[in-house]
Amino acid sequence: MSETCSSGRRAMRKHHVRFLPLIRSFVVITVIFGTALGAVASSSASSKTTKKVLSAKSALAYNRTKKFVLPSGLKGSAPSTVKIALGGGYATNYMALETAMGAGFFNAVDKRFNTTISFDLYGSSATSEPAFVAGTDQFIAIAPANQLAAVVGGQSQVALMNLELGFGAVVSAPLADEATRGSSIAAYGTSGNTWCQLSAAGATNTLLVLLAGENNISLPSVNLTTIGSTAGELPDIQSGKCQVVSGEANSAVLGEIEQVSYVLYDAPLPTKTIPLAGEQIGEGLDSSPAFISQYPKLTQAIVDATVRGLLFDQANGGNSDAIYKILPSAMTASLSIGAFAQNWQLLGTAFSTGRYDNGEFPTQAVNDTISLDEATKAIPVGSALNPGQDFLNKYTIQSYKDFNEVPPLKQAVGPNTLPSVVGEPSLEAATAYAALLGGAVPANTGPAKMR
Q1: Closest C-alpha to 83, from 27, 156, 141
Q2: What is the DSSP string of 25-38?
Q3: Which of these, 54, 123, 207, 249, could form a disulfide with 330 (CB 3.0-4.6 Å)?
């Protein structure tokens, strides 16, 4: 962590303490591996299975980008309602969708297709995925680990757009240690320190295992402990039980506001994820082949709106105020601008860098993601997957054609059709694979291109 970044965060902590009651209700992260963090998240988020909270017709209908107009020929049939499932509630991971809703882009789709697009909020992917499979929702924002586990299990689920690239967990440490230990993982690697994870499986565990390996730290020596609930993250830091906590971004932000903890490793940023585990896809926008086949024009229009949301977020990656002003009112009702600014400081850089995601699925990112999903046992090693069927780039590519634009991020461009077989991972993903499963580093394509 740079001194400039650290100083800025300390200033924001002091300034935003008054927003504390509001941030407690903001559910942020759905994890990229295995079951989502929401499966062990707060009971308030998971006690209600689903709730439709916002339709595009009632969204804030303005935007500060160029006018969003669907191509005149993009017309077709549609059901009367279209629901998009968000596991874990409103999350920064889903910002492209939330921007599309708040800026009125989905409202334009509503009017063209005589439908109503709305969000369904779920406590976690543990409830959103079954609802999607059952047909309650027609689209779902979810991690590839969940999607691929469903595909391996015989379900039909296709990723249409890459919503973000990055690792879904944040590592925090006691604020009192920041001055002496700073951003050094090794400084927390000696006997007497206790490392804590939210769950014994999934992203929070994977992150600590990889960080320990990279810094030559023995996990037994740091007494790896499972907390089991997000509610225990800050109390366990404050009490001295944990010197390192791998958890969700919401808790990390709250810890900074309460001046209990600081961010030791901001893993959701691609600049942190790629050196550690390669090019990892964070979240995809998925649908079913049956729905896509029945409503191809509507599917394209929904991707068009979401791509435009992503581009707005990238254009304003360094301006949290601009993003906040166009978020859906149902989201900002329980999220102060100060709390959002703290979250955006943690995660917004992934958008403002303008390097990692234009909505397409690069071949290397798909290979790296599948490799790590196997290493974390989200799917069996050697699963029979067909990237060309499971990840579709053609809708995002068509979106840029619909608006006569060129995809802005050359290194994030994927082919129109991905290969039919899984290829070799990057060196970083292969190294992570070996660290998690043991044995030699498998064959790989060399250093990740996005690094």
Answers
A1: 141
A2: T------SSSS-GG
A3: 54
